[in-house]
Write a structure and sequence with these properties.
seven-stranded mixed β-sheet, about 230 residues
Amino acid sequence: MSHSGALNTGSAQERLLSQQRAYYSALAPDYLDQLLDLPGGGELAEALDAFRPAGSVLELACRPGTWTPQLLRHASDVTAVEASQEMLAIAANRVSDGAQVRFVETDLFAWEPDRRYGVVFMGCWLSHVPAGRFESFWSLVTTALAPQGRVFFVDDHYRTPEELVEGPASSTIQRRIPDGTAYRIVKVPYEPAELERRLRELGWDITVTPTAGPFFWSAGNRTAES
């Protein structure tokens, strides 16, 4: 690929990620009504409680605080990072006054953590990271994690046939907000076993557990030798 071709590919991905950010901002008022009501969803909250995300927790892509209140049941403090100002406004209203939570509005692909955390949590975010940024994203998680820190994330591989506008092999799909406006976003349909293998290659000891439906939850840490 020529240098200009590489730039074009990069700018195309930047446009896609910009549209993804716009989608979540536009969806913010309706996001909680759009959550997938599919088998296995209840297993995720149970698994998170069993994991007990204690200490200082970093929540990446908190959206409208879908998981933040549950994290606060265990954590001493939570830093919740999110690109959408509209999402953050809703999230701030979903936690009680005096809650030990810091909301940070930033593009996660340009953000650098200012401290380290005992737990890094992600709720349905990894599947929205472009495949080409998988390794660099996990480098960010490593940077944010304290020694002996732990990771927990939930996600799903749910994509409807109508969303596959570039075919099933593409991780770019089309989703609509309730008024019908269409947006292109990233949705990588990870299979648990393959995801677990890829994380192991990057030095993570993370077990990815499938549920009864399209969801999965994952818990672990850096391997001892990495």
